[in-house]
Design goal:
The protein has about 220 residues and is α/β, with parallel strands linked by helices. It is built from six helices and ten strands. It is about 30% helix and about 25% strand.
Amino acid sequence: MEKEKVVELVDVCRQYGEGENVVNALDHVSAVVSRGEFVAVVGASGSGKSTLLNVCGGLDRPTSGGIYIEGTDIGKLASDELTEFRRKRIGFIFQNYNLISVMSVYENIVLPVQIGGHLEDKELLGRIMDTLGLTGLEHRLPSELSGGQQQRVAIARALISTPAIILADEPTGNLDSSSTDDVMRLLTSAVRDFGQTVIMITHNEALTKDCDRILNMKDGRLTER
């Protein structure tokens, strides 16, 4: 039985600059990520992996080619449509956590749901909080948490809206080795226990041991190991 496609890139190019100064950040990239996969994209700085994540997440638009999330070509959505789609169907985990400093742990986690005018799923929230070891920290501010705890909040925020895809951009880049191990375990749990699909960008190949597939980015081109 063929697995359901969640992400499909069809001959995607992303160019910056013009004429002799043009840079092919993505050079005819095609790939498919199926539901429930944990995929790592590895490559050196400047290889194009962050550009790949940005176009998959609708943070940047391709110069050409198609980017399909659950069958929707997000490159053809109007700006307001793309913003709404991104909020509902794409979860982000950033290296710098991107938490709102004046909001509590609870408020940061449920923000994506509440922006849409909905109430969070209390049962799902409780399960996420327990799994990520955040129970009891609901009323703390980000400044009162360790780096590893802040990244757990970011993971919880990505999970709460049950997105089609979670995009993790160097999610352990600012963490010590112990917190790095915890975050990788939790990302694996997001796939195994919560049925999520995760694409992780990293330059650290040691983090890919629990991934289902490893894709290599070099000079804007994507190849599979």
